[in-house]
Amino acid sequence: MTVPGIPDKITFAVHHKQLVFNDDTHQYTLGDGTQLESVTAILKAEGIQQYGPRNPDADFKMQVGAWVHQAIAWYEHGTLDEPSLSDGVRAYLESYKKFKELTGFKPIPSLMEVPMWHSAWRYSGTPDLPGVIAGRFVVVDLKTGEKRAGDGIQIAAYGDLISNSVIGFERICPEGIVLHLKEDGSMPRPQKYDAKEMHGNRNVFFAVLQTHRWKKANGRSLVRGQGMTVPGIPDKITFAVHHKQLVFNDDTHQYTLGDGTQLESVTAILKAEGIQQYGPRNPDADFKMQVGAWVHQAIAWYEHGTLDEPSLSDGVRAYLESYKKFKELTGFKPIPSLMEVPMWHSAWRYSGTPDLPGVIAGRFVVVDLKTGEKRAGDGIQIAAYGDLISNSVIGFERICPEGIVLHLKEDGSMPRPQKYDAKEMHGNRNVFFAVLQTHRWKKANGLI
To answer: How far apart are CA 375 and CA 328, in angstroms?
Structure first.
C-alpha cells in the first residue's frame, strides 16, 4: 500500500500510554500490573520460532545481535560514535548501510525500536525499523542469526502492532522485510513479504496466539450460552455429496479420499499440538486402549439392537451399565445412522468419527464416550466432531450442537457428564480451527 505522506511527528493511540517496558527483563506491563506476552515469547512457546540450547556461544551471539540493533538505532538517530564500535558490530552496520543505499529505505525515527502493545489481541513487541521504500510502508526486522521458518509470522505480528498503535495507520497493511545482515559487511539478501503475504501471516499469528492462550488457560470455564432446539430429525439421514469420497481403513484408522489424499484426524492433530496429551505406550496403556475400543463397539451394537450382552466380559459390561444409567437419567436418544460414522470436513479438510450424535429434550447433542481420565482438550475434540457433522449432513449446516464428554465408570455407576452448551461448542470449534492452522503451518515449514 502506497503511503500518501507520513508526518515527521507520529501520534500514538491513547492505549499506547498504558504500556511500561522494562529494558533489563524485556517485560511488557500495563499500568494496572497486567503482564503481556511478547511476539517472540509466544512464537517460541508454540515452536514457531525455534532456538537452539543456551550456551556461552549462543549467549554471545544474542548479545552481539542486541549491540547491532542498538548501533543501527543510534546511527539512524544520528547519535552513533562509529569509531567506538567493535569490528564485528561495524561489519553488520556496513551490511545494513548497503541495503539502505540500494533500496532507498527511509526509517521513521519516531517508530524505531518503540515497545508497543495490541489493545484488541493483547500481545506486545518492539518492531525494529518501520519505514518507507518508494512510497510504500515497510517494516524491517533486523537479524544477525540464521533464517528461521517463523520469521514471516513474527514480522506480520509486528506490522499489526503498528496498525493498532499509531493513529492513521489503522487501514495500512505494511510490507515486510526480514533483513539478515552479513557478518562480513556485504549486501544482505532481504526476505520480502508483500502486503497480501503479511495479511495472511498475521492471520496465522492470531491462530497461534489463540492456540497458545487456550493451552495456558485450559481449565477456564466459558460463558454459558443457549443451545438450539432441533425441530425434527428425520429417521433417514442424508449425507452431503462430498461424504462419499471418504474411505476409512478400520485397521490403520487412516482416512483417505478417493484421489488418494490422506486426511489427518481430530485426535492426531490435537495430539501433535499437545492439546490432548497421552502417556507413554506400554502393555497396560495398550490394554486400556483396547478396552475402550471394545466398549465403543459394544455400545454401538447395543444401540443398533445387535449386541449379545451375555458374551461381554465383566469389565466391558460394567461400562455399558454406566452408559445405560446416563441414558435412563437424561432421556438421551442416539441417531443410529450417525453413530460411529467416519466423516471429513470439505472446507477445513480434517477427519474424525463422532461417537454418538443424538437428542436430549429436543436438543441436538454429540456424546463422546471415554473410558480413561479427563483431559484438558476434551472440549476442543468434541467441538471439532460437532462441526464435522454440521459440514457432512444435509440440514445440519446451521445447527451448532451441544456436547457431552461422557466418562463412563468402570464400576458401572452413573457417570458425570462433562457438558458443553452451544456457545461453548462454538468457541471451542474456533480454538480447534486455530490449532489446525498452527499445525498445518508447522508441517508446511518443516517444524513437525
So the answer is: 26
Nearest to 448, CA basis, from 268, 245, 276: 268
Half-sphere exposure of 37 (CA within 13 A, CB side): 16
Decide if 161 contacts 125 (C-beta within 8 A). yes
CATH topology of domain 241-444: Lambda Exonuclease; Chain A (3.90.320)
* Residue 121 grid coordinates: 489481541
pLDDT in tens, 79-107: 999 999 999 999 999 999 999 999 999 99
In sequence order, what are the beta bridge partners of 133?
136
Q: Which residue has the higher pLDDT, 375 or 219?
A: 375
Structural domain spans, the chain: 14-216, 241-444
Q: 147 exposed, middle or buried (CB, 10 Å; 0-12, 13-18, 19+)?
A: exposed
Is residue 53 over pLDDT 70? no
Can you read off the three cell numbers belonging to residue 13?
Answer: 493511540
Q: Check whether 235 has a pLDDT greater than 70.
A: no
Question: Does the pTM exceed 0.85?
Answer: no
Long-range contacts, 29-33 (Cβ 8 Å, 24+):
30/117
Euclidean distance between CA atoms 29 and 16, whole angstroms: 11
Q: Is the dihedral of CA 366, 367, 369, 372 positive or negative?
A: positive
**3-state class (DSSP) for residue 125:** strand
Amino acid at 143: K
Cα–Cα distance, 409 to 72 (Å, whole number): 64
Q: How far from chain centre, in Å, is Cα 380?
A: 12
pLDDT of residue 374: 84
Q: Which residue matches cell numbers 510502508?
A: 137
The rounded percent of the chain whose pLDDT value lies above 90 is 52
The CATH architecture to which 14-216 belongs is Alpha-Beta Complex (3.90)
One-letter amino acid of 3 = V
The Cα–Cα gap between 14 and 194 comes to 29
Q: Is the distance from CB of 87 to CB of 98 less than 8 angstroms?
A: no
Q: Do domains 14-216 and 241-444 have the same CATH topology?
A: yes
pLDDT level of residue 188 (50, 70, 90 thresholds): very high
CB 350 within 8 A of CB 344: yes
